[in-house]
Amino acid sequence: MDPPWRQQVDRFCYQYQQLETNLDYPQDEFLCLEEVQEDIYKRVFCDDVSNYGPPNRYRIKILKELLSRIESSIDDWDKYAVSDELMSTLSVLLSTPKSPEALWAQKKCYVTYHLSLLEPETQEKQIAQHPSITLFENRNLIAAGGTTGLRTWEAALQLGQYLCQNPSLVAGKRILELGTGTGYPSILCVKHLRAAHAIASDGSDDVINNLPDNLFLNNLQDSSKITPMDIKWGHALVGTEDEKWNGGQPVDIVLGADITYDQRVIPALVATLFDLFGLYPNVEVYISATERNAATFSAFLNVCNERGLSVEKLHFEVPPQSRQHGPFYDDQLAIHLCRVSNT
């Protein structure tokens, strides 16, 4: 049986590994316990787990707050103490030269998303570990700036949760992801949901060039089950030199997360969807769209209608952030999960 503090410590560690801004620290009655401090140290602060952990600025900020809370939680210094390992870690971090804050905000870092809807996986040593996806991304990127494909957005996390709830949608299927960005949905399908194959496509050279890093982080660097591909929306899928697109391989499912954010590219996106329906009449298309403004999403609906494509909104209940156990994302964003069909 798990100790009473387990769920709170798990939540804190998962939020930390996802580089959340506001973490839920365990209650004082647990923080003062030696076993709680040791568990937190071994899971997120010791040297053995720091290779793909958060950047030092983030680690320092969180560790300072954690130690302050631990000290405040102790009402009997003869009975309780502050972890020497945590204190030593903070000292080492503080002595490490820091990069300028402006530069740090532009740097990519390792972010781990825990998949709480999936069952723990048993590894070779028979130790159960919760499924997760680790990505190298720019966590501080804003939606309006630069290449949006260099970070994972909420729409991708929500689409991933929907697929985790409905794994049969992709199990054994061949997936095409449009606008893959960091590759989160494609990696999820291949690594955890038993998809037969995934094409992680994007029109950005920067995104395609960064995908191998994220495949490596998820032990997919040598996998034949996932293929990066350059697809520019609105361009013919079959060129003069290609008799059949994708070597004639089938596509069962098309996925897209946060690919309707720019009204200017929607006609090209819908044109590509229309072409895919022409190549694969039975293909199923699922799109997770953040409604940053009503006009942009309406434009997507209108262009689909003009091309004879119907858009069905699917029901997906987003738990409030207080009840999320990973991945964590904004429960106030208007995200539409849709199935697009060729009517």
Automatic annotation (TrEMBL):
<dbReference type="InterPro" id="IPR019410">
    <property type="entry name" value="Methyltransf_16"/>
</dbReference>
<protein>
    <submittedName>
        <fullName>Methyltransferase domain-containing protein</fullName>
    </submittedName>
</protein>
<dbReference type="InterPro" id="IPR029063">
    <property type="entry name" value="SAM-dependent_MTases_sf"/>
</dbReference>
<dbReference type="Pfam" id="PF10294">
    <property type="entry name" value="Methyltransf_16"/>
</dbReference>
<dbReference type="GO" id="GO:0005737">
    <property type="term" value="C:cytoplasm"/>
</dbReference>
<dbReference type="GO" id="GO:0008757">
    <property type="term" value="F:S-adenosylmethionine-dependent methyltransferase activity"/>
</dbReference>
<dbReference type="GO" id="GO:0032259">
    <property type="term" value="P:methylation"/>
</dbReference>
<keyword id="KW-0808">Transferase</keyword>
<keyword id="KW-0489">Methyltransferase</keyword>
